[in-house]
Amino acid sequence: MDTAKCETCPVHNKANLIKLGINMNNVDFVVALAGNPNTGKSTVFNALTGLKQHTGNWPGKTVTRAEGAFIYNKQKFKLVDLPGTYSLLSTSTDEEVARDFILFGQPDVTLIVVDATRLERNLNLVLQVLEITDRAVVCLNLIDEAKRHNIIVDDRTLSKELGVPVVPTAARNGTGIPELLKYTSEVANGTYICKPHRITSGSKAVKKAVDKLTQQVLEKFPGLPNARWVALRLLEGDQRVIDAVKSGELRNLNKRSELTESLLVQN
Amino acid sequence: MNDNSMNENILAAANNLRWEIGENFHDSLMESIYHDAAKIAQASVLKDHQKPEFNWDRTLDKIVTSRVWGIPLMFILLALVFWITIEGSNIPSSMLASFLIDDIHPLLKNFAASLSLPGWLNGVLIDGAYLALAWVVSVMLPPMAIFFPMFTLLEDFGYLPRVAFNMDNLFRKAGAHGKQALTMSMGFGCNAAGVISTRVIDSPRERLIAIITNNFSLCNGRWPTQILIAAIFIGGAVPAHIAGIVSAAAVVSIAVLGIVLSLVVSWTLSKTILKGEASAFSLELPPYRPPRILQTLYTSLIDRTIFVLWRAVVFAVPAGVIIWLVSNIEINGISLAVHFIDWANPFGLLIGLNGVILLAYIIAIPANEIVIPTILMLTVLAGNIAGAGSGSGVMFEAESAEATAELLYAGGWTVLTGVCLMLFSLVHNPCSTTIYTIYKETGSVKWTTFSAIMPVLLGFAICFVTAQLWRIFF
Q: What burial class does residue B9 get, using C-beta atoms within 10 Å of its C-beta: 0-12 exposed, 13-18 middle, 19+ buried?
């Protein structure tokens, strides 16, 4: 029996998933779990870390940020479960926590958990996240519910349109978790390069303004992966981003460790 | 060009450009996002329109959130849950009690005697600590093991946001945030968890109101107290075949009273010391999802029941020790406990309770679960009930509600005492865990103190009024 092929099969590798609970020292990668409220983020979290976050079918169930870890393919991942948000542009504390973590915490991969029965509404957040980071995986959760309602989501097309991997899952019973792990690992390790969909913004005047500002931001903070998003926020007058520019915090966005640690401690 | 001026340049450029692109930038950005989302969704989602589906969710919601049926349905559901809990825990409770107290207690006593342990050590460990533990397990475990899984099933099913939807209007009129219905529901599980869940409320003023009034949600630790007292005093006063339903109705009424108090106190707070406007919010009603029954039973059993049990154990053991000490350390030939009970009795009777209850509540500040066992032990002690061990006086036999009833009646209790105990259990200071959580969430000593003291004073007032009215009419 030829076992060479086994190495690359996600089911084989699922056996390599070692759930670590809250043992989070010396991690190789940090993974953020984002998504609309009530999409199954905590269920995915439990499935990967072996912890028992309280889950419940109502929005607002998770109000604290939970953290856990797991080992996959001999690499150690820290998983951070963020509160659910409908968008990253509003002003409630929940949304700020999530937004700040994705932007300043610089996770290696952002797992966006999406409700397959409400794709269009969920895509709002997905598109916003893809503006901030280009290392993301979409976890298309609740496909068992979708099936119950006769909704079929073509994950291949979705993946092509979004430019990131899309993994159908039913986290409640473990379906799709092996594939989720595989793609998360590939994106974190750089084996899978995402080409995230970028929002086509309106009129010509707006485009010109955004491009101009983006260039300035890039001059000032070379190598910033989401300069265009920063430019958009500055144009909108987002105070947090303005402060980050003033303090030069954005410069540090390539040095992950200190910022993540300080953010994690603070919250 | 140094750092700072480069920063300023960018910000200045941003300001200028902002003027150029006009006011509706944010709106047009959002529109672009919606547009792209719609396009992508359309390309990827295929709905199977073969047959017009009977839409379960909508139909169910029409009933559950209807103006006429919504709230009565909530009460019926609540009553059903309690009735199942009360009826279902009778037999397991008496089985556990007879095992732990009738069988094991004498064994432990013999074992201690064979080791020739000094009398006081024997007393503290076996009559104090172990008995308190045994009581908590036999009385508290069965109701919790039934109640929590049911609550979790409802939660998983998706019913809770409908509760918020139905109650939203009421909360708004009380000057509170609609999401308070959700935090209040969380509080029915554990007040500390309810306080933490108020993080979903953005406005600090409304959040504070939600935190302060969360105590009026009858938490898990208090359910067994309510159920037991209702079964004894209320169910005991009516014919046996409707006793179960009547007790359940009594407990539901107390819970509803708690909700009403929440609203009234919220209203008072928002008109006096926490003035302000109600804020708007949107709530998503999630689809009904079939709960995973076996999984839910398992996790809720482990999570909630055992956790609360552990907490009861951790607090029961020290409390049992304290009870034994307080009952056996004597000044002038009378134990400390009896001193306090006699001293507090006049005040207690005034408000429809008695000295034993007051002492029990002081000992039980750490956790509500241990109130009843403390009361029973102190009643046995202070009343010198026949058949309760000599001298050390914390032994008792309470295999069933009837036996407990006899014990309490012998201790001078009346139906009024039972009713006032139920009221006071609803309206008294939060447990120490909750007080600590309130402090951590608000960061304010002033508000934490207020949250702790206000309910006690309110409780005294309510009991006082009830006692006077009762005495006038009965």
A: middle
Which contiguous run of DSSP H or E holds residue B105? helix B105-114
- C-beta atoms of A202 and B45 within 8 A: no
Considering only CB atoms, which chain B residues are within 8 Å of A153? Answer: 44-46
Number of H helices, E strands in chain A: 11, 8
DSSP state of B411: T
Q: Tell me, what's the ipTM?
A: 0.78
DSSP A120: H
d(C-alpha A208, C-alpha B10), whole Å: 15
Q: Tokens for A52?
A: 């028992």
Distance from CA of A5 to the nearest CA of B (A): 31
CA dist A52 and B353 (Å) reads 42
* C-alpha–C-alpha distance, residues A72 and A179, integer Å: 12
CA gap A15, B334 in Å, rounded? 68
CB contact under 8 A, B7 and A246: yes
Cross-chain Cβ contact A58/B160 below 8 Å: yes
Bridge-based pairing of strands B334-335 and A66-72 is: unpaired
Of the candidates B9, B155, B303, which has its C-beta nearest A52's C-beta?
B303
Give yes or no for a contact between A82 and A108, defined as CB atoms under 8 angstroms apart. Answer: no
Q: Looking at this protein, which amino acid is placed at residue A111? A: L
Residues B451-455: contacts with CB within 8 Å, 24+ apart?
B451/B211, B451/B212, B451/B215, B453/B429, B454/B212, B454/B265, B455/B215, B455/B216, B455/B427, B455/B428, B455/B429, B455/B430
SS3 (DSSP) at B394: coil
Q: How far apart are CA B46 and CA B170, in angstroms?
A: 41
For B233, the token pair is 């005093």
Residues of chain B contacting A248 with CB distance shorter than 8 Å: 3, 7
Nearest by CB to A216, from B10, B32, B200: name it.
Answer: B10
| Contact by Cβ (8 Å): B369, B308 | yes
- Check residue A190 and give its pLDDT: 87
Residue pair B156/B296 in contact (Cβ under 8 Å)? The answer is yes
Give helix then strand counts, H and E, for chain B.
Answer: 22, 3
Residue-wise pLDDT tens digits, B209-220: 999 999 999 887
Beta-bridge partner residues of A33: A81, A111
Q: What is the tens place of the pLDDT at every residue in B83-99?
A: 787 778 778 877 887 88
DSSP summary character for residue B387 = T
pTM for the whole structure? 0.69
